[in-house]
Design goal:
CATH class: Alpha Beta
Number of strands: 10
Number of domains: 1
Bound molecules: adenosine-5'-diphosphate, magnesium ion
Mean pLDDT: 94
Structural class: alpha/beta
Strand content: 25-35%
Helix content: 25-40%
CATH superfamily: P-loop containing nucleotide triphosphate hydrolases
Distance between the termini: 22 Å
Largest sheet: 6 strands, mixed
Order of helices and strands: EEEHEEHEHHHEHEHEE
CATH topology: Rossmann fold
Shape: globular
CATH architecture: 3-Layer(aba) Sandwich
Number of helices: 7
Low-confidence stretches: none
Length: about 230
C-alpha cells in the first residue's frame, strides 16, 4: 500500500442469504483510493454500489475480505473505535437526504458534533458556518420539509462535513434532484474535494459528476468491471 492511500478494499465481498439463494451483492472488489482523490462509482441498479459504501463506512461487515482506512483494518476495531471512525473520519450523503424532520437545518448539521463531544454552542456555531458556506445562511432555522430538495441535500452535505471528515461517501447524491439542482451539489462536492482535499467517493449515474472525477470505477454484479481515468 502506498503512503497516500486512504481507503483500501481487498477481496471485499458481501453475500446475502435469501430463501436458500445466495445473492453476491459484492463479490471480490480490490481497489486503493488515494488521499484527496475523487472517485465515481458507476453501475446499474443492483450492481453493489450501496453495499460497497456500507462496507467502507463500517455500517455493515463483509462476508469476506478487508477494508483498510488509513492503513487500519476496520474489522479489527472495537465498537467504540468504529463509532469514532464513522463519526470523525467519514461523512455520508445519501440519495434520500436522511435529515431528521423535527430538527432545524442548523440542528441537523450540528448533530454529528454532539456525537463527537463538541460543546453545544460550538457545534451550533460550526453548523451555522458550514450552512452559510453552502449558501443556506438564510435557512438556518427551517425544518427539512420547509426546504426544497436541493436545499435539503445541501443541509445533508453540511451535516456530512460537520466533523471535518477526511472522506466523504456520497451514494447517488443527485439521484433525487433535477439537473440544475444536481449541478449545484456536484459543484459544491467537487469544490470541497479540490480546496480542502477531502477524498470523495460518489456513486452516481450523473455524467457531469463522472466527468469531474479523477477515476471512474464501473461495477457490475458485485465486481469491478473496469476502472478509467476521469
Ligand atoms: N439487505 C439485503 N438483503 C438481501 N439482498 C440485498 C440487501 N441489500 C442489497 N441486496 C441485494 O444486493 C445487490 C446489490 O444491491 P445494492 O448494493 O443496493 O446495489 P446498488 O446500490 O448498486 O443499486 C442487489 O441485488 C440487492 O437486491
Ligand atoms: Mg444503491
Amino acid at each position: 500500500m502506498s503512503f497516500d492511500t486512504i481507503i483500501e478494499m481487498e477481496d471485499l465481498a458481501r453475500h446475502y442469504e435469501m430463501g436458500g439463494v445466495t445473492i453476491k451483492a459484492l463479490d471480490g472488489v480490490d481497489i486503493e483510493i488515494g488521499r484527496g482523490e475523487y472517485v465515481s462509482i458507476v453501475g446499474p441498479s443492483g450492481s453493489g454500489k450501496t453495499t460497497l459504501f456500507n462496507m467502507v463506512g463500517g455500517l455493515d461487515r463483509p462476508t469476506r475480505g478487508r477494508v483498510y482506512i488509513d492503513g487500519v483494518d476496520i474489522s479489527k476495531l472495537d465498537a467504540y473505535e468504529l463509532a469514532w471512525l464513522r463519526c470523525r473520519k467519514i461523512g455520508y450523503i445519501f440519495q434520500t437526504f436522511n435529515l431528521i424532520p423535527v430538527l432545524t437545518a442548523v440542528e441537523n448539521v450540528a448533530l454529528p458534533t454532539v456525537f463527537a463531544g463538541v460543546p453545544r454552542n460550538e457545534g451550533l456555531k460550526k453548523a451555522e458556518k458550514i450552512l452559510t458556506s453552502v449558501g443556506l445562511g438564510e435557512r438556518l432555522h427551517h425544518r427539512p420539509l420547509e426546504l426544497s430538495a436541493g436545499q435539503q441535500q445541501r443541509v445533508a452535505m453540511a451535516r456530512a462535513m460537520a466533523n471535518d471528515p477526511a472522506i466523504i461517501l456520497a451514494d447517488e447524491p443527485t439521484g433525487n434532484l433535477d439537473l440544475n439542482t444536481g449541478m449545484e451539489i456536484i459543484d459544491l462536492l467537487h469544490g470541497l474535494n479540490k480546496t480542502q482535499g477531502m477524498t470523495l467517493v460518489a456513486a452516481t449515474h450523473d455524467l457531469k459528476m463522472i466527468k469531474a472525477s479523477d477515476r471512474i470505477v464501473w461495477m457490475r454484479d458485485g465486481k469491478i468491471e473496469k476502472i478509467e481515468r476521469g
